[in-house]
């Protein structure tokens, strides 16, 4: 099961980071960052079969307009959250806030086509 | 003097030898010569599921059986099943993906990122719901227009048959009443249906995307208010017009009785035969009225059926989606779908009110006593 591998990997990263911190403190953060990125990519890789299943559904073409922005936004949020957490671990909370803000802006950009569609619908309804 | 008396007697006997009878009078034959009760003018507004409904009112009335009604319903359901199943699948798909995103969102500690994700999931639900409802609303408006067109075309036919049956005053009163009703139903689409949809649309947007603000109660109150006002106005119109028609029928019956008495008693020789001829005509007019009335009921049913079935199926789809959304923890999305369901209910109320009113008047027409047959 993949979850056992990921949990084992996380424990290994934590242990290695602890040891490196004792030996060379300045290398601990990059080691934690690398381990975190690998774990995140492994977790996202677990979603691949589900995404393929969604794509094979008979109504997937119609659903794509809604599913794609949702899944992309979730990915953006997870990546922004991970980066912000790493910045906070390094003591850079201001940078972390900027990363979160950038993530929010990216999500709003992904919403833009849907907002346009809603405005078109409202315009058609109000103007007859 | 005797010769004069003999000549007059012989002349009277020659006159009495001439046979007089009401022979070969058939209103149906006469009507057939002039195109009959043809439905050719209404072909464009009769939906495809009832396209083989018949060429004239006689055929339509004969074919309008329970089996035929069931056939129309099943064929319409078969036509609606595929697109509505697709819409339902899309709605459920959006709900399932939204619930998955909401579950994953819990692992994100940043408040601003979770708020942005919440906004996006609600936007998806709102768009999916509006994509379903917009087509239905246009269909309701088009069905109301077709219904009015048919009734406006039917009014002169009903008036002619009233007059032919000796109900002259009833023809005038009934035509005026039905014109009032069709004008009222025509204005419903422009002054009630679309404005309420626009207001409810705005309120549902605020409820869905406006954070903590929930205006679904205001929307519900607005729809209830309009439905109550509509019911009151329809009841008053039905009461007034039906009473006017009943009074006119009574007046026409009295007039017809007096005319028949005068014809039978004061017209020599042929007065009795004339009374029989009038009764024969009256019977034919009665058959024509029943035929046209039944045919009109069938056509109204055929016009209204597709829209009503579509509304019911969409409401069912939104009910299922709202229940699934609430089970999956997507309460706000569930509220949006409940709101859509309510808006469809309002559209159904308007459509059914107009259809039932017209059916009532058409049924009254077919059951109205023929003045020429009054005893």
What would your notes on this structure say?
- The complex is a heterodimer of chains A (128) and B (375).
- Chain A has five helices and no strands.
- Chain A starts with a helix and ends with a helix.
- With 128 residues, chain A is an all-alpha fold.
- Chain B has 375 residues and is mainly α.
- Chain B has one domain (56-373).
- Chain B has helices spanning 2-16, 27-33, 57-63, 66-105, 111-164, 168-209, 216-266, 271-327, 331-367.
- Chain B is elongated, with a radius of gyration of 30 Å.
- The two termini of chain B are 47 Å apart.
- Classes of the chains: A mainly alpha (128), B mainly alpha (375).
- The A-B interface holds A 54, 57-59, 62-63, 66-67, 69-71, 73-74, 77-78, 80-81, 84-85, 100-101, 103-104, 107-108, 110-111, 114-115, 117-118, 121-122, 125-126, 128 and B 86, 89-90, 93-94, 97-98, 101, 104-105, 107-110, 112-117, 119-121, 123-124, 126-128, 130, 134, 194, 197-198, 201, 205.
The ordered H/E elements of chain A are HHHHH
Q: Count the DSSP helices of chain A.
A: 5
Mean pLDDT of chain A: 82
Structural class designation of chain A: mainly alpha
Distance between the termini of chain A: 57 Å
Mean pLDDT of chain B: 78
Poorly predicted regions of chain B are 20-35
Question: Considering DSSP H and I runs of 4 or more, what fraction of the residues of chain A is helical?
Answer: over 70%
Report the count of strand segments of chain B.
0
Beta-strand residue fraction of chain A: under 5%
Largest sheet of chain B: none
Summary?
The complex is a heterodimer of chains A (128) and B (375). Chain A has five helices and no strands.
């Amino acid at each position: 099961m993949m979850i056992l591998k990921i949990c084992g990997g996380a424990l290994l990263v934590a242990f290695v980071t602890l040891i490196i911190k004792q030996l060379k403190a300045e290398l601990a953060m990059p080691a934690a960052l690398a381990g975190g990125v690998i774990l995140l990519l492994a977790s996202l890789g677990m979603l691949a079969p589900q995404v393929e299943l969604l794509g094979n559904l008979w109504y997937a073409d119609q659903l794509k307009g809604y599913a794609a922005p949702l899944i992309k936004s979730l990915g953006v949020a997870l990546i922004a959250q991970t980066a912000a957490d790493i910045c906070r671990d390094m003591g850079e909370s201001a940078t972390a806030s900027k990363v979160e803000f950038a993530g929010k802006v990216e999500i709003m950009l992904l919403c833009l086509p849907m907002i346009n569609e809603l405005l078109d619908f409202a315009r058609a309804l109000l103007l007859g | 003097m005797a010769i004069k008396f003999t000549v007059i007697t012989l002349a009277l006997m020659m006159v009495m030898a001439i046979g007089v009878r009401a022979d070969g009078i058939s209103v149906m034959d006469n009507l057939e010569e002039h195109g009959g009760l043809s439905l050719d003018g209404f072909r464009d507004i009769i939906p495809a599921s009832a396209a083989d409904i018949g060429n004239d009112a006689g055929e339509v009335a004969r074919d309008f059986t329970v089996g035929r009604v069931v056939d129309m319903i099943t064929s319409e359901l078969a036509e609606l099943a595929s697109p509505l199943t697709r819409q339902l699948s899309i709605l459920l798909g959006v709900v399932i993906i939204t619930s998955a995103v909401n579950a994953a969102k819990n692992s994100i500690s940043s408040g601003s990122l979770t708020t942005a994700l919440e906004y996006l999931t609600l936007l998806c639900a709102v768009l999916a719901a509006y994509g379903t409802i917009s087509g239905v609303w246009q269909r309701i408006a088009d069905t109301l227009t077709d219904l009015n067109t048919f009734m406006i075309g039917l009014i002169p036919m009903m008036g002619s048959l009233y007059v032919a049956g000796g109900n002259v005053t009833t023809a005038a009163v009934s035509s005026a009443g039905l014109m009032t009703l069709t004008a009222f139903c025509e204005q419903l689409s422009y002054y009630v249906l679309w404005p309420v949809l626009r207001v409810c649309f705005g309120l549902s947007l605020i409820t869905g995307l406006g954070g903590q603000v929930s205006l679904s109660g205001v929307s519900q109150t607005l729809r209830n208010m309009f439905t109550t006002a509509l019911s009151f106005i329809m009841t008053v119109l039905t009461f007034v017009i039906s009473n006017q028609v009943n009074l006119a029928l009574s007046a026409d019956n009295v007039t017809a009785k007096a005319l028949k008495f005068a014809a039978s008693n004061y017209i020599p020789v042929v007065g009795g035969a004339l009374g029989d001829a009038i009764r024969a005509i009256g019977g034919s007019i009665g058959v024509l009225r029943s035929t046209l009335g039944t045919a009109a009921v069938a056509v109204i049913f055929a016009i209204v059926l597709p829209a009503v079935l579509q509304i019911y199926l969409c409401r069912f789809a939104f009910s299922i989606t709202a229940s699934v959304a609430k089970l999956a923890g997507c309460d706000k999305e569930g509220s949006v779908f409940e709101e859509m369901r309510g808006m469809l209910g309002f559209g159904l109320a308007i459509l059914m009110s107009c259809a039932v009113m017209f059916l009532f008047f058409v049924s009254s027409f077919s059951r109205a006593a023929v003045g020429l047959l009054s005893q």
